Each structure stands twice: as C-alpha cells, then as structure tokens.
Amino acid sequence: MLTLGITGGIGSGKTHLCKIFQSFGIPVFYSDIQAKLLYNEPGFLKKIALLFKDPSIIKKNSLNRQKLSAIVFSDKEKLKKLNQLIHPKVEEKFQQFKVQHAQATYIIKEAAILIETGSHQSLDKILLVTAPKVQKIDFLKKRNPFFTKSDITKRMEHQLSDQQKKPFADFIIHNDVNSSKSIIKQVRDIHLTMTNLALKKTKI
Predict the structure, then answer these.
(1) What is the Cα gyration radius of the chain?
(2) Which of 95, 97, 111, 132 measures 20 to 30 Å from 87, CA to CA?
(3) Which residues have CB under 8 Å from 120's CB, separation 6+?
(4) What is the pLDDT of residues 118-169, one digit of tens each?
C-alpha cells in the first residue's frame, strides 16, 4: 500500500479533489476534520487552556474558537505550540486509519499544513493543490460569512506559500475555475499513476 499526501493553502479546494479520489474508491483521511474533533474532548480542551494560560478559551465546556483563533493567528509561536499539541494526536489517528485500510491500493492523507509539520516525510507521494488567491478568498467568504478579508489573509500568512511548497510536490493541480483543464481528468491521471506504482511495489 502506498500513501499520497494532499496539501494546499486554505481555500485551494483540497476537499473537492479528495472527494473525486473517493469516487474512485480511495480511502481519504481528513487531518483537518480529525483535528477539529479533538476540540470535543474535555481533556484536550483543558490542555489548550493550560498551554495558553487562558481559561476563557473554554466556554461552557466548549472551545471558544473565536478566542483561540484570535490568539494563534496573531502570534506564530503560539500557533506553532498549538500544532505541536494537535499533530501527534492526529498522527495517531492516521496510523489507525492505515491499519484499517491496509488492503487498499493506496490511501490519502489530506492536511493543510502537511509540509509545515514535516508529515510529508513519511508519505510516498505528495499532491499540491494551488488556486488563484482571489478565488481562495471568495470561496472562504462564502464558506464562512463571518470571515473578513483580513481574517483570511492572516491565516494564509501562517502557511507556506504555493511557491514554497512546490519543491516538495510530486504532482501539482492548479484548481482554477476559469481554466479549461478538467480537474476530474487530472485527478484520474494521478489516480492511475498511483495505482500503477502500488502494483509495481507489490510485485517487488
């Protein structure tokens, strides 16, 4: 079994591409969703409150997401500390996912900060999803009407740029809604490449 990492900046359309891979029968592990699920665990919330020495992060036994975002997206070091707390837990979940899908030809790990955390080093191939900045901002505003352009820009600034990520990528898909290139065809081509690579590995 091979592993394919899918990454890209916020609003680039990673989830859309992952859904296409799933339509081909490929299991996808959504790191960002797993990270958010951690916030439902009382013990994990206490760790966050202790980490930032701010009990107001927890409100009625739930995470005050607005408060946490205001803290970490205005301080790179605090964001780094939060990721160091979350990443090992998400990695544990991914290892369990690998065992559950051990018979798959290949599996996918989706993560916005795959390269930033160093997770890409344990994966066989990396697919980078890029998109025009204006398109990303429009998409994120529609997904979360409470986001301002400043909120979105702050989040983008805390991730590596597409140019910085490109040297780590084995495949790149530019998800431009104005492009004539078929996203489905591009995904299918990568799917066939991954399938062939997995079959060759099995024969060795």
Answers:
(1) 18
(2) 132
(3) 5, 7, 114, 126, 168
(4) 999 999 999 999 999 989 988 888 887 777 778 888 888 878 899 999 999 9
Q: At what angle do helices 76-100 and 65-72 cross, to 10 degrees?
A: 120
Domain boundaries 2-203, corresponding CATH code: 3.40.50.300
The residue-averaged pLDDT of 89-98 equals 95
Q: What is the pLDDT of residue 203?
A: 60
Q: How far apart are CA 139 and CA 135, in angstroms?
A: 6
Secondary structure letter of residue 170 according to DSSP: S
Measured CA distances, 133 to 114, 120, 121, 137, 177 (Å): 20, 24, 27, 6, 12
The DSSP code for 10 is T
Share the mean pLDDT of the chain: 89
Q: Report whether 99 contacts 141 (CB < 8 A).
A: no
Select from 119, 109, 122, 137 the least CA-distant residue to 9: 137
Q: What b/e string do you get for 88-108 counting C-beta neighbours within 10 Å, with b at 16 or more?
A: eebbebbeebbeebeebbbbb
| Domain extents in the chain | 2-203
Torsion of CA 173, 5, 12, 15, to 10 degrees: 110
